From TrEMBL:
An MF annotation (GO) of this entry: oxidoreductase activity
UniProt record similarity statement: Belongs to the short-chain dehydrogenases/reductases (SDR) family.
Naturally occurring in which organism (per UniProt): Anaerocolumna chitinilytica
Gene responsible for this protein: cbr
Signal peptide, first to last residue: none
Protein name, as recorded: Carbonyl reductase
Pfam families linked to this entry: adh_short
């Protein structure tokens, strides 16, 4: 079994790669930076995991198209990479103090270009390479804003990504395909993007390793998750439209 994981050089992506690799899955480490990607490959290799680097930059479709020429077949496509906001040299990647009123249209456009259009190009390009019973998994978030966390650009891009996944799932179903596409919401995870520490917020924030194991378990189980949005606690979100309309 072979899995391509975008953004697998660090954080949740690397943790997914490690968890799947320990189960015998061959890992393709998708990353923008070759040096960081190769470093992740070396770390995985020291753990006995078969891994190799594939250059993937969601903001550069040429890298996606080049990668499809290098890969003959995939069993798993895990869309983990994304950006929390448009890059600002003087601001953290995910500025917790940024309010909805602070977002510009360019912020939304740049975030959507990577998280939505980039992920769509991944799915569209690698779909012909996906095994008949292959799975596409999007790492995503709930779309309903809350007082603690509601970054407009990021949540908007993920909402669009979720709708895309459900629409692809419907096409798989209608055409009788055995392929699956679904989303996994790992919940609060400590990463360099948010500056949180494990156990923060009364234990709500989990480690990347915990998130990776949770996601790998869902990816490798024998259930048909096509079209589902699955929370970290295993709950399947069935009130998605209610979340949109309130």
């Amino acid at each position: 079994m072979k899995a391509l994981i975008t953004g697998a050089n660090k954080g949740i992506g690397f943790a997914i790669a490690e968890a799947l690799g320990k189960s015998g899955v061959e890992i393709l480490v998708g990353a923008r930076s070759e040096s960081r990607g190769q470093d992740a490959v070396r770390k995985l290799s020291t753990k006995g995991i078969t891994a190799s680097f594939v250059k993937i930059d969601l903001d550069n479709f040429d890298t996606i198209h080049n990668a499809t020429e290098e890969i003959d077949q995939l069993d798993l496509l895990i869309n983990n990479a994304g950006i929390p906001d448009s890059y600002k040299a003087d601001r953290p990647a995910l500025d917790q103090k940024k309010t909805t009123f602070d977002y510009t249209t360019d912020d939304l456009r740049e975030t959507m270009e990577v998280n939505f259009f980039g992920t769509h190009e991944m799915i569209r390009s690698f779909l012909p390479k996906l095994a008949e019973n292959g799975k596409i998994v999007n790492i995503t978030v709930p779309i309903q804003p809350n007082n603690f966390w509601h970054p407009l650009a990021y949540q908007t891009s993920k909402a669009a990504q979720n709708v895309m996944a459900m629409t692809y799932a419907l096409e798989f179903k209608n055409t009788g395909s055995s392929k699956q596409i679904f989303g996994v919401m790992p919940g609060g995870v400590a990463t360099e993007l948010n500056g949180h520490t494990v156990g923060a917020l009364d234990g709500f924030i989990k480690s990347a390793e915990e998130a990776g194991e949770l996601i790998a378990k869902l990816v490798l189980d024998t259930e048909n998750h096509n079209g589902q949005m699955i929370q970290f606690d295993g709950k399947i979100v069935t009130d998605y439209e209610v979340q949109i309309h309130g």
